[in-house]
Design brief:
Helices cover 33% and strands 30% of the residues. The relative contact order is 0.16.
């Protein structure tokens, strides 16, 4: 009888260990907003109120999981490697933090409130390409628009950013952190100067309202 009880305990222990061994590993979370010093572009200049509209990204990558592009062109979802929110939401937060650091003031959270202010500028960002290619490169292409309420100026720009990366998920994230910082810096420069940043293709228009 004692031997039978011991055998049952042994089997139960093996079963529990087996379940633990088969459980999914804890996910790793990544951010596009690294801690560290950021350069300011608004030194000595006043930047009026501005609002950052919801950022759009391609639907196939708008996920909490990182999505990589394989050599055969297929997309692979890395379920154990995740952003802290869906990519569109996380990218908006990251851009907001970078703009705050660069301009010395955060975007107005309530867009309707911002648009009632005479000097409020609306910032729209449409990310058209967000690629992670392991061991090769990361790319971020974005069409962005600034609508200045004062003067009726509309500045539409296209940024094409790319970083070569080493093998590994961390390298992919670091590369896109760099792209996000560069995009934020370009937008910040345009907000301050009301003109196209260096090395960025932009068009200008005037509105009546």
């Amino acid at each position: 009888m004692k031997s039978a009880c011991q055998m049952k305990k042994l089997l139960l222990t093996m079963f529990v260990v087996g379940l633990v061994g088969c459980s999914s590993p804890a996910p790793h979370y990544y951010t596009l907003s690294p801690e560290g010093a950021r350069a300011s572009v608004a030194t000595g200049q006043r930047v009026g109120a501005y609002a950052l509209s919801p950022v759009t990204v391609p639907p196939e990558v708008d996920n909490t999981a990182l999505v990589t592009r394989e050599p055969n062109g297929r997309l692979m979802l890395l379920s154990d490697d995740r952003w802290t929110a869906t990519l569109s939401s996380h990218l908006q937060s990251a851009l907001g933090l970078e703009l705050t650091a660069a301009l010395g003031m955060p975007p107005v959270q309530n867009i309707n409130q911002a648009m009632t202010q005479a000097d409020a500028t609306q910032v729209q960002v449409d990310v058209q390409r967000f690629e992670l290619v392991p061991g090769q490169y990361v790319a971020l292409d974005a069409l962005w628009r600034l609508r200045f309420r004062q003067g009726g100026l509309v500045l539409t720009c296209f940024s094409r950013l790319k970083q070569n990366v080493e093998i590994g998920v961390t390298a992919l994230v670091l590369g896109q952190q760099k792209n996000t910082q560069l995009l934020s810096a370009q937008i910040a420069q345009a907000l301050v100067s009301r003109s196209a940043p260096a090395d960025v293709q932009c068009t200008q228009a005037k509105t009546s309202g």
